[in-house]
Q: What sequence folds into this?
């Protein structure tokens, strides 16, 4: 009995020990598996960290380079005034990528307004306004004013039209459409949104004048079927349209009769006397004078014109106003002055007179002085020097950016030997 009891006790003890041993073995196994797992994780983590730091080593200099590039590409805009909501206007400039339009854009942007330039780039260039692209107050729209435009604005400076004889004579029908249909579209827009419209008219409405100097009440002497008629008559009818919209629809209009203007951003192939003479003098070519050279012209510098346009737009003068410089010179005097300023040895060459070329042109600016308090202030030589500097740079730019095709290397077909 006792021995049986002892055996039962012995087997119970060994079962418990077995269980204990089994439990301990299981624990040891779990501990070792966990240890391995932790070990592997830390190895994995370590290697991940090493890879990350390697990547970082390579990427950081690249990031640095991108930051430098971004810095160098960040557009630096000319300084712009801050205008409160009340004073800031939404201004549309048609033809704003052209010579005058781009200077007007600069002035209005710097004054703190919101400017939308609309241009079909017939004679204008993106380069003239590229320094504003991306600015929050600026927008550039590629659009032909012969098509209607729907936009919300407070003021419209309507400048879209080719302005120099070679440009407006290149496609006379298009010149007529731009000045007639284009002006109707802009007046329609002004009526719809209640905007004030300023028309960039021209001294050409006086034609080959019989009175000298020309004041605003002179009706002009224009050949309606001559080579200049598409422009002269186009502008005359554009003025008529302005006053019809004013009388019939109550649209607020301003009409600037602009006389010859010059300055940087004139076209290289503008074909007008100042740019022709400067380019000829800079390139050592003869300065070409049409006729005897005794015909007179008066030229204003572009910043004077821009100040006049803004003064007129913001005035209460709705009748036409001449904007020009009354300082009159003969064409021959211009040729000689430009030769001297450029320091050129070019000769002066006389060619036959151009058809319908006005003999005299000089603005009477009493009205602008009296009603706008405006008159030109930039002396001729100062303006000419700025224009000469611009054309010199343009010639350099052209010379450095010409496409010179590289000679192609001779192609040798596989498997064939070239005979020499
Ligand atoms: N520069 C002067 O001496 C002078 C003299 C008298 C009048 N004006 C008038 O001033 C305005 C500007 O002259 P500018 O010298 O700056 O000439 P420009 O040729 O440099 O500028 C005219 C601009 O109008 C754009 N344009 C032409 N047709 C267009 C169309 N259908 N739709 C949209 N855009 C069009 C051209 O691409 C160009 O950017 C013109 O209306 C011109 O008649 C200029």
A:
């Amino acid at each position: 009995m006792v021995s049986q009891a002892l055996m039962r006790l012995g087997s119970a003890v060994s079962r418990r020990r077995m269980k204990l041993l089994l439990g301990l073995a299981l624990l040891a196994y779990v501990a070792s598996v966990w240890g391995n797992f932790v070990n592997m994780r830390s190895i994995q983590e370590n290697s991940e960290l090493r890879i990350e730091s390697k990547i970082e080593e390579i990427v950081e200099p690249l990031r640095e380079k991108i930051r430098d590039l971004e810095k160098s590409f960040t557009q630096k805009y000319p300084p712009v005034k801050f205008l409160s909501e009340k004073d800031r206007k939404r201004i549309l400039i048609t033809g704003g990528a052209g010579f005058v339009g781009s200077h007007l854009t600069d002035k209005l942007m710097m004054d703190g307004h919101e400017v939308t330039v609309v241009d079909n780039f017939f004679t204008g260039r993106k380069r003239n306004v590229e320094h504003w692209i991306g600015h929050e107050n600026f927008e550039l729209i590629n659009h032909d004013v012969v098509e209607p435009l729907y936009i919300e604005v407070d003021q419209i400076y309507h400048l879209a039209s080719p302005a120099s004889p070679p440009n407006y004579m290149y496609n006379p029908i298009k010149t007529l459409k731009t000045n007639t249909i284009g002006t109707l579209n802009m007046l329609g827009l002004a009526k719809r949104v209640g905007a004030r419209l300023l028309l960039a008219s021209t001294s050409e409405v006086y034609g080959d004048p019989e009175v000298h100097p020309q004041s605003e009440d002179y009706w002009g002497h224009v050949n309606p079927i001559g080579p200049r008629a598409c422009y002269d008559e186009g502008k005359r009818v554009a003025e008529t349209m302005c006053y019809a919209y004013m009388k019939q629809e109550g649209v607020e209009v301003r009409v600037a009769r602009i006389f010859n203007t010059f300055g940087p951003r004139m076209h290289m192939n503008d074909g007008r006397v100042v740019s022709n003479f400067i380019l000829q003098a800079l390139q050592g070519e003869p300065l070409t004078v049409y006729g005897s050279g005794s015909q007179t012209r008066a030229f204003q510098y572009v910043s004077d014109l821009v100040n006049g346009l803004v003064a007129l737009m913001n005035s209460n003068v709705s009748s036409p106003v001449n904007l020009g410089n009354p300082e009159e010179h003969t064409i021959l005097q211009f040729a000689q002055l430009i030769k001297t300023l450029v320091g050129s040895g070019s000769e002066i060459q006389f060619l036959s007179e151009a058809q319908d070329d006005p003999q005299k042109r000089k603005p009477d600016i009493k009205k602008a002085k009296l009603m706008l308090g405006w008159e030109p202030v930039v002396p001729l030589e100062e303006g000419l020097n700025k224009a000469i500097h611009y054309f010199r740079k343009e010639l350099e730019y052209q010379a450095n950016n010409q496409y010179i095709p590289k000679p192609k290397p001779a192609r040798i077909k596989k498997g064939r030997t070239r005979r020499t």
Remarks:
- The first strand starts at residue 90 and ends at 94.
- Residues 94-95, 97-101, 119-124, 144-146, 159-163, 167, 178, 182, 200, 202, 258, 260-261 surround nicotinamide-adenine-dinucleotide (CB under 6 Å).
- The chain has ten helices and 13 strands.
- The domain at 90-266+301-325+358-378 is CATH 3.40.50.720 (Rossmann fold).
